[in-house]
Amino acid sequence: MNPMDEAFMRIAIEEAELAIKHGNPPFGAVIVRDGQTIARGHNTALTDNDPTAHGEVVAIRNACRALNTILLDNATLYTTCEPCLICTGAATHTRIARVVMGAVIADAPDYFRHPEKGSLLRVAPHLTLPFEYTTGILAEECIRLYTDGNPR
User: Which residues participate in catalysis according to the annotation?
Assistant: First the structure.
């Protein structure tokens, strides 16, 4: 674990709380490179009527715009929950080097309607992912996002 993992995960949690405030599912993310926050994002799927506007994707879009590139080499994605296949694909496509997760889908099975559709941890054994991943950073705080009756 990187000593800054908890600090950056707290930013992702703040983003998830913004998503809740705006009536969206509680997913937040932050992109970091060289110890600096490049971009933040939270789920806006419901308010934007965009099924791809997951917190991780929004943060990746914001980071790519901020850096004027489609590649995020050497960046770390912090996310409050295990990325779905859309978000895993975006992280893979942009060449993110590391993904740090708070909760994982198994932590809140009642919240996730379709875990069988896949997620990072479900596909990891079957793929050679181009990034390393870490789970459980501020897990209890992140799990509360998905067990406190927040929007889906």
Answer: 56
